[in-house]
Amino acid sequence: MIEFESLTYSYRSGEHRALDHISLSIHQGDWVSIIGHNGSGKSTLVKILMGILEDYEGVIRVEGTVLDDENRAELRKRFAIVFQNPDNQFVGATVEDDVAFGLENNGVPREEMVRRTEAALQAVNMLSYRDHEPSRLSGGQKQRVAIASALAMAPDVLILDEATSMIDPEGRREVLDILQKIHHEGRTTLIFITHDLTEIEQSDHAVIMREGRIISEGTVEEIYQDTDALIASRLVLPFHIKLSKRLLDGAYMSYDELVRRL
Amino acid sequence: MLSKMLLGRYIPGSSIIHRLDPRAKIIAVVLFMVIVFFANHWTGYGLLILFILTLTKMADLSPRFLFNGLKLILILLLFTFFMHLFLTKGGTVLIDGGFFTIESEGVITGIYITIRLAMLVLITTIMTLTTSPLQLTDAIERICRPLKAIRVPVHEIALMMSISLRFIPTLMDETEKIIKAQSARGSTFMAGSLTSRLQALTPIFIPLFISSFKRAEELAIAMEVRGYQGEEGRTHYRVLNWEFKDTMVLILMIIFGIILWVIRQ
């Protein structure tokens, strides 16, 4: 369980707050989506959690332990993150080298490293590409390798910071399928950051952020019904939501349900 | 022309030379660089040429392919040859052209030096053709490890090399994109005088530099969150396996050197 309590952060002191008293709890094993337009503070939140940004106000608790300078490096090992740009997080010269990079850094013995690398690549269906160079992979494949690199570290929490925004629709679907598989295994908490409302359907809990504040929070159904908040956050409504709102008086229904009704 | 260039290229294969430990290859090449200078008459140079031809055969490369790929180097070799032809004096005068003379010593030294240079270029080319850049980086890191005692950051240099190699194709793609984008905005790169062509490169390089810095920063963050803290406490995924055949290569190389030394005149 991760708890944020009244988290506030400004990039330059005195300027407007990128995060403004954020309080949020994330339960172990949940798939939590954080949705927001550019500049809503959603990436700032995970950067603080990962310890990339410091000097924040407020409290972060991981499993009840307050995050501070001393335990940050240790607690960070429980988190793994996949960033937006598939190229700029690929460190290794080949797929397997990249997955092994994090394990090498943590001093994992070689036999275990080989085993975990294989298992992680298997989980994202990239094992047959193990000796490929990144230049020969598509954007979606590179992001899958990035997920494998994260999974190899056996994290409690996997964070995806707009990991699908730079890849084609096909790659996006592959990534979402893999996330669903990970979610079903139930061990890993997923924090999924996006500005695309169509990508949150499978999550347990969704949070809408705008200008550093949480303006709405709840299950996906609740979020989809709160169309005013979505529109106020300048988010694009998924097509089936727009359609059901216009045709069927705004009652929320899933895509399949809508198709059946029509 | 450029596509045929072989300098620094790697051609995947499974020959015995491909499968040698990259460390053995590097050490053997360094030994060869010394051995080349042992030869000082026809038998010695004949043996060197024979040695390189055998190596080419063992690496599954065709001599014609090697020759075509090294045509640019040929200009350099010819230049060396002619320098010696005209400038080295001694022996009998073969041609007396008035303001210049060609003497027999000049011809012989010219040929010797040219063979020497050609052999050095060939053996290094055979090495890079049969060893992936990644393996070479690994091998250099292992070989240079003792230098850490005098505070040479061997691991960091090797990591920098491997990241640079990894980003070459990425930056090539990016350059191509920028060229297209600038062309679409009316830039021309292929017309005008040399100075105007060089100036036309500015709108390519500036965006390229900016994006490289952004990439570097993101990469640094990605490495940090994956726990990179320098070499301490790090394990290695890639291992180099030194086998019996690698030791044999070095022994054969030394024997070859001894033979050349013995037949010296």
UniProtKB/TrEMBL annotation, chain A:
UniProt cross-references to Pfam families, sorted A to Z: ABC_tran
Topology within the bilayer: Peripheral membrane protein
Keywords: ATP-binding, Cell membrane, Membrane, Nucleotide-binding, Translocase, Transport
Domain ABC transporter: 2-236
Chief location bin: membrane
ATP-binding recorded as keyword: yes
Record's subcellular location: Cell membrane
GO molecular function, one term: ATP hydrolysis activity
Any single GO CC term annotated in Swiss-Prot or TrEMBL for this entry: ATP-binding cassette (ABC) transporter complex
Entries under InterPro entries matching the protein: AAA+_ATPase, ABC_transporter-like_ATP-bd, ABC_transporter-like_CS, ABC_transpr_CbiO/EcfA_su, ECF_ABC_transporter_ATP-bd, EcfA_1, P-loop_NTPase
PANTHER family: ENERGY-COUPLING FACTOR TRANSPORTER ATP-BINDING PROTEIN ECFA1, HEAVY METAL TRANSPORTER
Family label: Belongs to the ABC transporter superfamily.
Protein's UniProt name: Energy-coupling factor transporter ATPase
Protein species of origin: Salinicoccus cyprini
Lineage of source species: Bacteria, Bacillati, Bacillota, Bacilli, Bacillales
Automatic annotation (TrEMBL), chain B:
Transmembrane segments: 26-53, 65-87, 107-129, 247-263
Subunit: Forms a stable energy-coupling factor (ECF) transporter complex composed of 2 membrane-embedded substrate-binding proteins (S component), 2 ATP-binding proteins (A component) and 2 transmembrane proteins (T component).
Membrane topology type: Multi-pass membrane protein
Molecular function terms from GO: transmembrane transporter activity
Name of protein: Energy-coupling factor transporter transmembrane protein EcfT
Claim: Iron is one of the keywords in the record: no
Family statement: Belongs to the energy-coupling factor EcfT family.
Pfam families reported for this sequence: CbiQ
Species of provenance: Salinicoccus cyprini
InterPro entries recorded: ABC/ECF_trnsptr_transmembrane, EcfT
Keywords: Cell membrane, Membrane, Transmembrane, Transmembrane helix, Transport
Cellular location(s): Cell membrane
GO terms under cellular component: plasma membrane
Function comment: Transmembrane (T) component of an energy-coupling factor (ECF) ABC-transporter complex. Unlike classic ABC transporters this ECF transporter provides the energy necessary to transport a number of different substrates.
